[in-house]
Specification:
Blueprint: H1 10-24, H2 30-39, H3 41-53, H4 57-63, H5 70-82, H6 91-113, H7 118-139, H8 150-158, H9 168-189, E1 207-209, E2 215-217, H10 218-226, H11 254-277, H12 286-293, E3 297-301, E4 306-310, H13 331-336, H14 341-357, H15 362-385, H16 390-403, H17 410-431, H18 439-453, H19 460-471, H20 474-479, H21 510-525, H22 529-535, H23 542-556, H24 568-580, H25 590-594, H26 620-635, E5 642-644, E6 650-653, E7 657-659, H27 667-686, H28 690-706, H29 719-739, H30 741-753, H31 759-765, H32 767-783, H33 792-796, H34 805-814, H35 824-831, H36 833-839, H37 842-856, H38 862-867, H39 873-876, H40 883-901, E8 905-906, E9 909-910, H41 914-917, H42 939-963, E10 972-973, H43 987-997, E11 999-1002, E12 1006-1011, H44 1013-1025, E13 1031-1032, H45 1046-1056, H46 1064-1071, H47 1077-1097, H48 1105-1112, H49 1122-1125, H50 1132-1149, H51 1168-1180, H52 1185-1206, H53 1215-1223, H54 1227-1234, H55 1245-1257
Parallel strand pairs: 10-13
Antiparallel strand pairs: 1-2, 3-4, 5-6, 6-7, 8-9, 11-12
Length: 1261
């Protein structure tokens, strides 16, 4: 128990601590002090951190005579020191104050958490955080000529003692403040800007610049547009049809400065809402929610009536709807839908009903309807994802599909879209035979079929088909027709008679399409004139010609009827024309291609020896040589040498002969498996289905053909040179494709959907082909949304990819500029989000590990820990608050990062063995995984905390290096860190609302999201990374029973309280007591704790053991055995030995290992004749069975186990000689040792013990 003073007044600080401990102590004894200190460990930590911040705090605490607990007193004194006493004179003073609050906030948060009544302190917390956020966002980053620093003290005085952002009055106060700031900014920044509104003519408020460069107030603009006017009130110039009021398009001047200021105000307000209105995972009052909803919809007056118009920019400034078309923001809705779905639903239904009666500004109403649909869809998808099991998830999907057919409006569409998203994945599992079509799945398919059949193909059915195709493939859609329960999926008008495939070669452009059509026409009518004319062109691209031939020939051969295929005469003529024009002179497989007999590369074994596979060597030899050189100092060997066998395979000679020989018996299958694996990886990286992945490959190959060769010469014989080549290749070929992938894929899909190849001739010759092609086009158009929706109903069912971190990373890659990657921190943050998200659990994890260490040290063995389950922790730590939450935090963090932990090493040593990383922490997982230890499963707990600390430190160091911002020079202990010190982010509740706030999409074009990535990066870094602390982890492992050296314990005990043996009659009673194993273990654990306290505080040797336990230590556990009750403190060691020996006896009788810590080398079996020799020995000493057992047990526990942990040389020592050396001074035991079986060695002792126990339980001869 150590406390180091942190202030300049250590005596006063000690006095404060002692007074707090006295209030917590149940008595004046030392055990009570230890117990109080352990219970107040958090308060002691808070005191130390607070004294670092405020050196005079100890003196103030001594003079504070309130009856509050220590954390409450600290909270009040710290907040009083931060309260502004007068107006700030400059922005710099505000900055100094904000930094003080930033440093103090983590301590205040912890003090509030441990206060007796946190709610009483929350008003002060809200006041302080509101002022801090205002200074941070509005004052420090704003234009200094606005002099917003003068409003800081005014705001502090306006916030009363009951200020709480969960109440409407506080929210209105902030609105009024921002309105006042807005007026001041307008006067300062827009003094030369006047509104040209008919009834205004005053200085513009929230101005919008028209195309003619005249300016309107935002309110005037909305009122003017509400009367269907599209001209300027001043000059009468009409606005262009495609013009949209976006102030952000202005790049200079006072309006841009004013817009920048407004963004800062809105950033402050959004932070206020997310951090305070929705703090503690609790929603604000209903009045606040209704007020927040008014930022999404806004009521304005017109001459006829009044309606609600969509206000797409979240803003507390009441007359704003700048950027209402086409950008929409869903930050508020995402927050509200987590808590108050019914209230939000009611508010939105009212809006929809009103807007349906009055068709003024229909686009704004449509925008809000789509916004609501998307937000509700995300909300319902979250409910599906949170279902506890697969069956529960199916039940939720079925309920959604049923409920959506009973309601109308955006909620109906959102329910259906969320359910159909999940149904697409389920159908893929069923079609691919990865899941059986069970009765429960059929019950889900029934309402889905009803929903899809009641509307046309562009409704729910079309949406479901889009999800299947975009996530998986068109081929999977076609395969659904082989399952009777899925026949409803494809509408009858799109069913195909043949399996027509879209032409992906169309990515090569019009040149390919024209040549393909000419070749196809010749194959149909045998008229050589058009083909001859095309071949006479000097610029015939041979690669395009090969693709044309391959596409045409293979597609015509898909017909079962041979008459549908090109005739031999047509093939011969085509070959002669190609030869005459000297096309494809080096292509040896032309005949095979034209006759559709081109051999496959993978599955044609005779082609394997001559096949050229353009792969790169992996430099395995160099890697192996580097590893051998690295290991040389540890092994002490000379420089390694690699040999080669006659077949050229390298090998090394050492203790074992090992060779590097590829083991690929089936090369085609091996290559195909690799290609399929690469395709899956490409799909995951691109976030798309196999169709789009193949299409992206075609785009890349086309780009490769069109890219001129690099001027650099690369030596590809070593890894470094190949890395340079790969960088150059990616920059020239791959990156341009990825950066424009969405547009390229959409263009290619549009070309395939509109492809009319052979349509005219097919109508004359092949009616079957006509049906196939004409049937495929509309389906492709619908799936890839080639045509724009013609009504609002079709708009509701447009495809929208699920918002995931992976999809965001893909868009980030498209924006990448390698010369100056300004978004690398955002990319790094998102790519490691699952790891960074686990860091938020650190406070709970360290607290749980400390509680487990205190509870189980010296009282549990490794065997018991491995048998105990995690679900038993709440029973063992029944007096620990929120224990289920603590265990859940450990499980979440471990399960999120365990795969990375398997590869994590420090100084070349894996912290957690890979086999342990395969185990998921569940209620049935071993308790040993949560008991920190340097051996065994305890490495899981130590490794997890070490890894999380390292990940935070690594990210912060990268952040510091890139932003040039310095970090704290001293790392903080992980056990002292709060959420405000950590990169604490919950993706669902913290990250995704921010993504939504910086997300935009246009209803008129697509629902694919776009982001303001630079603003998003600034927001994420400011919210989750800035001002965080470096961490250090101080290991504090559990001490298991077998890890503690009993001889040392007894030596320390004897030095404090001299020990003697129990009276013989007491020993006899104890040895003949019939014990239950749990009772015996509990009593031994009680003795362990008593001995440790005796060593610390001492005691009178003739004092009763029960008096020491019950009155001095004040332990609640009662001793009920009459013999133990009579024991004194001088008998503790002998009592412990007797009871521990009986525990070992009982465990052996139950066929459990009582000596688990004994190495396997000391548990060697013994022969049958030796067993008989032991039985003869036991028979000859029948009255001294317990003496023999106690002798062997003490030798094993006190002598053998400690020695065996240091050296295994003792295993071959004769057991009789060792016993003689240990017990030579004991006359009784000397006689037993003299006749002890001489054939036994130390390594036989464990098995000899089993034979002895077995004989004692069932004497035989």
């Amino acid at each position: 128990m150590v406390y180091k003073p942190q202030s300049a007044y250590p005596a006063e600080e000690y006095q404060v601590l002692m007074e707090a401990l006295k209030e917590e102590m149940a008595g004046d004894d030392l055990p009570s002090l230890h117990r109080a200190h352990r219970q107040m460990s958090s308060e002691c930590r808070i005191l130390g951190m607070a004294c670092k911040l405020l050196e005079t705090l100890p003196q103030q605490l001594i003079g504070n005579r309130s009856r509050d607990l220590l954390p409450t007193k600290i909270f009040h004194l710290l907040t009083e020191s931060l309260a502004p006493e007068k107006a700030f004179a400059s922005v710099e003073e505000c900055g100094v104050w904000e930094q003080q609050v930033e440093r103090t906030a983590p301590v205040l948060a912890q003090a509030m958490q441990h206060a007796e009544n946190p709610e009483k302190l929350r008003h002060v917390w809200h006041k302080l955080m509101t002022l801090k956020l205002f200074v941070k966002h509005v004052v420090l980053t704003g234009d200094h000529k606005l002099m917003m620093f003068k409003k800081v003290y005014a705001l502090w005085k306006m916030m009363k003692d009951d200020f709480n952002m969960k109440d409407r009055s506080s929210l209105v106060l902030i609105e009024n403040l921002l309105s006042s700031c807005n007026q001041q900014a307008s006067k300062t920044l827009l003094k030369d800007t006047n509104c040209v509104g008919v009834n205004c003519k005053s200085m513009a408020t929230n101005p919008i610049m028209l195309p003619c460069e005249h300016v309107l107030c935002n309110k005037c603009f909305e009122d003017w547009r509400a009367t269907d006017r599209t001209d300027c009130p001043k000059c009468s110039n009409n606005w262009p049809d495609d013009w949209e009021p976006q102030v952000s398009d202005l790049t200079s001047g006072p309006i841009r400065e004013y817009k920048s200021y407004r963004h800062k105000c809105e950033a402050f307000f959004m932070e206020l809402v997310s951090q305070l209105c929705f703090s503690q995972d609790e929603p604000p009052s209903d009045e606040v929610i209704e007020r927040l909803m008014s930022y999404v919809t806004k009521e304005i007056k017109t001459d006829e009536t009044h309606i609600y118009l969509a206000s797409m920019d979240l803003s507390p400034l009441r007359d704003t709807s700048i950027d209402c078309m086409p950008v929409v923001r869903s930050f508020i809705l995402q927050l509200l839908l987590q808590y108050k779905v019914d209230l939000v639903r009611h508010h939105l239904e009212t809006y929809m009903q009103q807007s349906a009666r009055v068709l003024v500004n229909h686009d704004a109403s449509k925008q809000l309807a789509m916004l609501v649909t998307v937000c509700l869809q995300d909300h319902f998808q979250k409910q599906i994802a949170e279902a506890p099991s697969e069956d529960a998830r199916l039940n939720v999907v079925r309920r959604f599909l049923t409920d959506c057919q009973k309601i109308e409006g955006p909620e109906r569409v959102a329910l259906a879209r969320a359910a159909l998203d999940e149904l697409a994945k389920l159908i893929a599992l069923v079609v691919n035979r990865e899941r059986r079509l069970s009765q429960q799945i059929e019950q889900v398919l029934e309402p889905a079929a009803q929903l899809c059949e009641e509307q046309d193909g562009c409704g729910p059915r079309g949406y479901l088909l889009k999800q299947i195709v975009r996530q998986f493939s068109l081929d999977l859609v076609l395969k659904t027709q082989s399952i009777a329960q899925l026949h409803w999926l494809l509408p009858p008008e799109t069913l195909l008679n043949i399996d027509a495939q879209p032409d992906r070669f169309l990515v090569c452009g019009n040149e390919y399409a024209e040549m393909r059509n000419i070749v196809a026409q010749f194959c149909l009518d045998a008229n050589p004139a058009p083909l001859e004319e095309a071949f006479q062109h000097d610029q015939v691209d041979e690669c395009s010609l090969l693709l044309c031939l391959h596409r045409t020939i293979t597609q015509l051969h898909r017909f079962a009827d041979a008459d549908m295929r090109p005739t031999d005469q047509v093939i011969d003529t085509l070959r002669e024309m190609i030869t005459q024009h000297h096309l494809l002179p080096n292509y040896s497989l032309l005949d095979d291609l034209l006759r559709n007999e081109l051999p496959g590369l993978l599955h044609c074994e005779q082609n394997q020896p001559g096949a050229f596979l353009p792969t790169m060597p992996e430099d395995d030899i160099a890697v192996v040589r580097e590893a051998m050189l690295e290991a040389r100092p540890r092994s002490g060997d000379s420089n390694p040498y690699m040999w080669k066998c006659p077949n050229g395979h390298p090998y090394v000679i050492g203790n074992d002969l090992s060779a590097i020989i590829p083991n690929v018996p089936d090369v085609p299958a091996f290559l195909e498996a690799h290609l399929r694996h690469d395709l899956r990886q490409l799909q995951a990286a691109l976030g798309c289905g196999s169709d789009d992945a193949f299409l992206a490959l075609h785009c890349t190959l086309h780009r490769l053909r069109a890219t001129p060769p690099a001027n650099q010469d690369f030596d590809l014989r070593n890894r470094a040179a190949r890395s340079q080549w790969e960088d150059a290749f990616c920059a020239a070929v791959i990156n341009p494709v990825i950066q424009t992938m969405d547009a390229s894929l959409q263009e290619a899909n549009r070309a395939m959907a509109n492809d009319q190849q052979l349509s005219t001739l097919a109508q004359l010759l092949w009616s079957e082909m006509t049906f196939a092609i004409s049937g495929h086009g509309p389906l492709m158009k619908m799936l890839h949304e080639v045509d724009e929706p013609t009504d609002d109903a079709q708009m509701q069912w447009k495809f929208r990819g699920t918002i995931t971190v992976q999809s965001l990373l893909l868009q980030l890659h498209e924006k990448r500029n390698d010369a100056a990657d300004e978004l690398q921190l955002l990319r790094l943050f998102l790519s490691r989000i699952h790891i960074l998200a686990a860091i938020r659990h650190l406070p709970n994890i360290t607290f749980l590990l400390e509680r487990l260490r205190c509870r189980f040290s010296y009282s549990i063995s490794r065997t018991e820990a491995s048998k105990k389950k995690v679900r038993q922790i709440p029973t063992d730590l029944w007096n620990t608050a929120n224990i289920d939450e603590l265990v859940e935090s450990f499980a979440c963090a471990w399960n999120s990062v365990r795969k990375e932990l398997a590869k994590y090493a420090v100084m070349g040593r894996a912290l957690v063995p890979p086999e342990f990383c395969q185990i998921e922490v569940t209620p049935d997982a071993p308790l040993a995984m949560l008991l920190p230890s340097e051996r065994g499963m305890g490495r899981c707990a130590l490794g997890l905390v070490h890894y999380l600390c390292a990940q935070q430190n690594e990210f912060l160091e990268t952040y510091s290096r890139i932003t040039k911002k310095s970090l704290s020079s001293e790392a903080m202990s992980a056990s002292e860190a709060s959420l405000l010190h950590l990169i604490s982010v919950n993706p669902a509740t913290d990250l995704f609302p921010i993504l939504m706030a910086y997300q935009s999409y246009s209803v008129s074009t697509t629902l694919n999201s776009d982001y303001d990535f630079h603003s998003l990066q600034d927001k994420i870094l400011e919210r989750f990374v800035a001002d965080r602390e470096l961490l250090r982890y101080e290991e504090s492992p559990v001490v298991f029973v077998e890890d503690y050296n009993s001889s040392n314990l007894f030596a320390q005990l004897a030095a404090i309280v001299p020990q003697v043996l129990l009276p013989p009659e007491a020993s006899e009673k104890l040895l003949h007591t019939i014990w239950e194993l749990p009772d015996l273990c509990g009593l031994i654990g009680l003795l362990d704790r008593a001995m440790n306290y005796l060593i610390s505080i001492g005691g009178k040797e003739d004092a009763q053991l029960t008096d020491f336990i019950e009155n001095t230590l004040r332990m609640q556990q009662k001793i009920r055995n009459s013999t133990v009750v009579k024991c004194q403190l001088r008998h503790v060691e002998h009592l412990w030995r007797l009871l521990s020996m009986q525990k070992a006896h009982l465990m052996s009788s139950l066929e459990e290992d009582p000596f688990e810590s004994l190495s396997a080398e000391l548990k060697e079996g013994i022969a049958d004749d030796v067993k008989k020799e032991i039985q003869v020995y036991m028979k000859a000493n029948e009255r001294q069975h317990w003496d023999i057992a106690l002798m062997l047990f003490n030798y094993m526990i006190i002598t053998l186990i400690p020695q065996s942990t240091e050296s295994l040389a003792v295993q071959d020592y004769p057991l009789k000689e060792c016993l003689s050396e240990v017990y030579g001074d004991d006359e009784t035991l000397t006689k037993l040792v003299d006749v002890f079986p001489e054939s036994l060695l130390n390594k036989h002792l464990a098995k000899a013990w089993e034979v002895i126990v077995s004989y004692m339980d069932n004497p035989v001869f």
